[in-house]
């Protein structure tokens, strides 16, 4: 399958697209890549989305390590190879064990998670698979992260679901160099 909604040549960018692209490039991402390439067709949506994503990825109330774990669960739930290729190495760098990453890739519940990792994993899986979270899993998340943490965790799942939908629809190509892949 060929990629849809690929890069827009610089000379074809509207002023709004150019401004939105510059905003992303000037932030912690440093460039327009992955989901932001197709999102550039709607520069206002892209700008709002990237600001939400910047908060959720870098400053959420649950911290970067657990945010990366939630991103991996979401990527796996949506079979989103680009999200996986970008975030699996980051998750490893911030302390998610390779055994946990491999189990998520295999659609298995990792057996060797820390308590906070297990709570995030179970919350995300339930939210994706049941479109809701059980009272027990909600209570566990609330006890560990408080209300802001629970809402941020929901936000991470929703935001990365949006990005997965965009990239799955656009057929965004997986970066080849050093890419981590999920099994099909």
Automatic annotation (TrEMBL):
The protein's name is Carboxymuconolactone decarboxylase
What domain of life does the native source organism fall in? Bacteria
InterPro entries in the record: AhpD-like
């Amino acid at each position: 399958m060929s990629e849809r909604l690929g890069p827009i040549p610089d000379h074809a960018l509207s002023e709004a697209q150019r401004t939105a692209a510059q905003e992303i490039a000037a932030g912690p991402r440093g460039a327009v890549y992955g989901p932001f390439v197709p999102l550039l067709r709607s520069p206002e949506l892209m700008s709002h989305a990237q600001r939400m994503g910047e908060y959720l990825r870098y400053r959420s109330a649950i911290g970067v390590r657990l945010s990366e774990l939630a991103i991996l669960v979401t990527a796996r739930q949506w079979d989103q190879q680009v999200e996986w290729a970008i975030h699996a190495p980051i998750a490893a760098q911030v302390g998610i064990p390779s055994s946990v990453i491999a189990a998520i890739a295999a659609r298995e519940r990792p057996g060797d998670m820390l308590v906070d990792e297990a709570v995030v994993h179970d919350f995300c899986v339930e939210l994706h698979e049941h479109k809701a979270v059980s009272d027990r899993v909600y209570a566990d998340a609330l006890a560990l992260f408080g209300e802001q943490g629970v809402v941020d965790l929901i936000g991470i799942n929703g935001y990365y679901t949006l990005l997965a939908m965009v990239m799955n629809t656009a057929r965004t190509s997986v970066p080849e160099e050093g890419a981590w892949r999920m099994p099909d």
